[in-house]
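Case study 2.
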Amino acid sequence: MEKQNYYQPEIECASREQIREWQSEGLVKTVRHAYENSPYYRKKMDEHGVKPEDIKGLDDLHKLPFISKDDLREAYPYGLLCKPLSECVRIQSTSGTTGKRVIAFYTQHDIDAWDDGCARAIVAAGGTKDDVVHVSYGYGLFTGGAGLNGGSHKLGSLTLPMSSGSTDRQIQFMQDLGSTILCCTPSYAAYLGETVVEKGLQDTIKLKAGIFGAEAWSEEMRHDIEKKLGIKAYDIYGLTELEGPGVSYECCEQHGMHICEDQFIAEIINPNTGEVLPDGEKGELVFTSVNKEAFPMIRYRTRDICVLSHEKCSCGRTHVRMAKPMGRSDDMLIIKGVNVFPSQIETVLIDNGYSPNYQLIVDRVNNSDTLDINVEMNQETFSDTLGEISTREKTLVNALKGFLGIYARVHLVEPKSIPRSEGKAVRIIDKRKLY
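Prediction:
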């Protein structure tokens, strides 16, 4: 493999001994940093009966308590912050399980490390400083646009900060500026592909690769995108809690995503017991950051179910690979790249005077996610006219969009018409066949 296929060959191809040394040193430093600077982490460790001096290296990782989204909610907004705000240069955010969002803080050091991870992903997809990187992930609080934008800048590629939407303009810029690498959600890539084919513009665009993440997608969808856009499609993984996209990424072999192990320690645990599982076994993915300053995550439970592999990769990279997530150990849905929890839906329904009897129906039509919500009326509203019911549905649609950030079709249905199973409503019907 030629050297230009690595952004940081001394890191990406380091020996396993070197990677372990980096992780051990980083873990010791991160635990002490968190304990000394975050009252929440200090309380958490004290309750667990562990002190920084108990952590002497990687072999002691299992002694530390897990962190979950519940902790992020409880500690919101500053409880897990480990640097003064005067040293933080940015926040990014994603939706939380209630009105409280997940806010991640970054120092300039943290931004630089994040940019490195995304630059590695771009180079692994064949990118160089001579490429034109077309970033159609959303910008703003969402990490997608910021991450790939930063990685492209770091690499020195011409970066088009397109954001999402305005498909005709996206294609015009692809044509006029010769975009070669597309970065967006797979569903938007599929839509762009369909539009290019419908307009007969395949010969007018120069795309060679795409880096797609933020939502689950199948191998069938990958092949469909590749065919329509004439590219090779690469997967990328990340979480706002950790930094954003670039935590792991696919290489040319596409047998799993290489985790940036100089930045993160990955574990697989039994989601029910917390027991650490051996290499190759399926379980819940847990991450510990080893070089973050502002917002370090220690044993963060992602709730993503997957498998790790330390088998040697023929691309030459030595960092462990994770399979595509195979499901979730909680009830979170990812719809159009947005995290959606049933508890968020319940909050909106209750705030608008409805009982929390509802059903979410998620599907993928023409490679784009759809969300329908059936909501039971009470006897009083059930007697309304069709016009009044339609008005109520529109009010809920707007309330849900304001809270979730995505559009959902709302259907008000008869009282007690949603099926129960042993007295409990069947909350989610996901027809997408993603895993």
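Confidence is low (pLDDT under 50) at residues 421-425.
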